[in-house]
């Protein structure tokens, strides 16, 4: 799950392989979450990860055009 600050607290985006593909914000072979941070600002985000198995989380932040070219 992905939590991003909003004017009223945090905005939750539920992600993961256990959730229906149709509910994912971006259809991809990866778990992808489009978000933006205004230029010349900082923002704290929170990612909650849970699994009964071992985890490997290769998190990356991409420029949209670079990601599309990679994918």
Mind explaining what this structure looks like?
- This protein has one helix at 64-70, and strands spanning 2-6, 9-13, 46-47.
- The chain has 71 residues and is mainly β.
- It is globular and about 35 Å long.
- The model has no long low-confidence stretch (mean pLDDT 80).
Summarize the structure.
The chain is built from 1 helix and 3 strands, in the order βββα. The protein has one helix at 64-70, and strands spanning 2-6, 9-13, 46-47.
Spell out the blueprint of helices and strands.
Layout: E1 2-6, E2 9-13, E3 46-47, H1 64-70
Antiparallel strand pairs: 1-2, 1-3
- Helix count? 1
- Low-pLDDT runs: none
Mean pLDDT: 80
What is the succession of H and E elements?
EEEH
Task: Give the distance, in angstroms, between the N- and C-terminal Cα atoms.
Answer: 22 Å
What gross morphology would you assign?
globular
Q: From the alpha carbons, calculate the radius of gyration and give it in angstroms.
A: 13 Å
- Order of adjacent strands in the largest pleated sheet: 2-1-3
Strand content: 15-25%
- Please summarize the sheet with the most strands: 3 strands, antiparallel
Helix content: under 10%
SSE class: mainly beta
How many beta strands in the DSSP annotation? 3
Name the descriptors:
1 helix, three-stranded antiparallel sheet, 71 residues
């Amino acid at each position: 799950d992905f939590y991003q600050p909003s004017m009223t607290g945090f905005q939750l985006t539920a992600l993961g392989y256990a959730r229906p593909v149709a509910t994912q914000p971006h259809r991809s072979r990866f778990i992808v979450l489009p978000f933006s941070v205004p230029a010349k600002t900082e923002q704290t985000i929170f990612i909650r990860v849970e699994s009964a198995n071992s985890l490997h989380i290769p998190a990356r932040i991409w420029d949209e055009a670079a990601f599309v070219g990679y994918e």
